[in-house]
Amino acid sequence: MIKIMVDSASYIEKDYALKHDITIVPLKVLYKGTEFEEGSPGEFDEFFEDFTKTKIFPKTSQPSVERFTEEFNKAIDNGNEVLLFTISSALSGTYNSACLARENCKNKDMVTVYDSDGNCQTYAGYAMDAVEMRDQGKNVKEILEHIEKIKHNSQVSFAPDSLEYLKKGGRIGKVTATLGTILQLKPILTFKEGTLVCEKKCLGMQKAIGDLISLIPKRIKRLFVLHIANTKFFEMLKKKVDEFLAKTKEKIEVIVSEVGPVVASHVGPAVGLSWTALE
Fold it and tell me: Can you list the alpha helix ranges (DSSP code H) found in 55-173?
């Protein structure tokens, strides 16, 4: 049996993980002198209630080597092979931590650590595809061959409410943030195959949401409709997605979800879309 694992920055739903025997290994957040494990969608309200009212910038860290080793050994003891999907190594030390744990566990040949080159629900989608293939009797090699085929057309894109958090994180300068705020510029930030790019800069959130929708390719299997901190623009995004789905003839699984503190500490309140491509 293949034991599928993800880290918490995949934001895979806890109910889905429990139903399909997926282990979620949490990243950590340091905020106001307190360190806590990130948790799963539906558990972020208390953090965001405070986060959106303060100027304190959280710090994040990857799971420890010891935590990964413990999870690997537990799976091996139960006779399972492990397939772990991690957040992109370009964003976090999580992949490297997991690789060290693989070397330290009881049988490294039973463990595969896969750098998703993705962020957020992008690789939650990979794990969901892996569940389906595992249950069909496919092996790890076949699963990863499939992921490699869909990776270049799978991504996550966000339209932040403001530029303040990008400024705090050092991703844009103070002058750019000030001018952007005055002009109501909303960047569309896309993370795909290990690279963060600014797709567009839009005048106002309504235009940004329209441009987010326009990024959706024709051949996708699964669409995640996302928010960070339950932003006031989320209802607008859901309405636009419903209009898009009413016009398309494609059969698409739609999942409404949220993104947690690890990614929020860099992007701030935002709306977004992520999708899993078809081969």
Answer: 65-77, 94-104, 121-135, 140-150, 164-168
Which is nearest to 158 in space by CA: 212, 89, 112, 110?
A: 212
CATH no. for residue 25? Answer: 3.40.50.10170
Q: Quick check: 118 and 153 in contact, CB under 8 A?
A: no
Q: What is the number of structural domains in the chain?
A: 2
Of 83, 115, 148, the residue that ends a domain is 148
* DSSP SS3 for 187: strand
Cα 254 to Cα 257: distance, rounded to the nearest angstrom: 10
Does residue 210 have a pLDDT over 80? yes
Using CA atoms, how far apart are residues 207 and 91, in angstroms rounded to an integer? 28
Same domain, 129 and 191: no
Q: Structural domain of residue 12, as residue ranges?
A: 2-148
Are the CB atoms for 223 and 216 separated by under 8 Å? yes
Quick check: 40 and 11 in contact, CB under 8 A?
A: yes
Instruction: Say if residue 47 is in the same domain as residue 185.
Output: no
> Whole-angstrom Cα distance, residue 8 to residue 120?
9
Q: Pull the structure tokens for residue 76.
A: 């091996």
Beta strand pairing call for 253-258 and 220-228: parallel
User: What is the CATH classification number for the domain harbouring 172?
Assistant: 3.30.1180.10
Same domain, 141 and 157: no
Sheet holding 155-160, edge to edge: 195-203, 185-192, 155-160, 270-277, 220-228, 253-258
Q: What is the pLDDT of residues 16-67, one digit of tens each?
A: 999 999 999 999 999 999 999 999 999 999 999 999 888 788 899 999 999 9
Collapse the DSSP code of 66 into the 3-class scheme (helix H, G, I; strand E, B; otherwise coil) and give the result.
helix
**What's at 145, amino acid-wise?**
E
What CA–CA distance (Å, rounded) separates 117 from 137?
Answer: 25
In angstroms, the CA 1 to CA 18 distance is 16
